[in-house]
């Protein structure tokens, strides 16, 4: 863990990153994932349909909100909401939806890059390997 989490005695997250909440994905990686998902035409199934926790009114509202940006920003908002709505909506669940429903292997590859990244198991920030712990 990073120094700040160690001093705060932060609860350590699982060594299995599939069990991590979406909110703990390192920011830079999360942005990449969202940017890819905003390329909705690559998806076999629209993101909000695939995640399945948005009713039509909410989905239409979110789409309208990002209409002027050509839909950019939708994935960030939607994944944030989905991830915090239910504890089971974790990284592993997202990967499964991406693979099975949306057929977005490109996004799964980004998640797997993050999984091999050395991050703090408390707050999720990247830990620089050059600094010995
Ligand atoms: Zn930390």
From TrEMBL:
Q: What is this protein called?
A: Uncharacterized protein
């Amino acid at each position: 863990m990073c120094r700040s989490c160690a001093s705060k005695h932060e609860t350590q997250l699982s060594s299995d990153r599939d069990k991590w909440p979406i909110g703990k994905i390192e920011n830079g990686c999360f942005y990449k994932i969202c940017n890819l998902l905003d390329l909705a035409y690559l998806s076999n199934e629209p993101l909000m349909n695939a995640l399945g926790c948005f009713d039509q009114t909410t989905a239409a509202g979110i789409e309208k909100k990002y209409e002027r940006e050509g839909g950019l920003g939708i994935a960030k908002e939607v994944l944030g909401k989905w991830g915090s709505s239910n504890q089971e909506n974790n990284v592993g669940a997202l990967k499964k939806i991406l693979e099975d429903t949306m057929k977005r292997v490109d996004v799964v590859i980004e998640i797997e890059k993050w999984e091999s990244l050395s991050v703090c198991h408390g707050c999720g920030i990247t830990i620089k390997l050059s600094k010995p712990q």
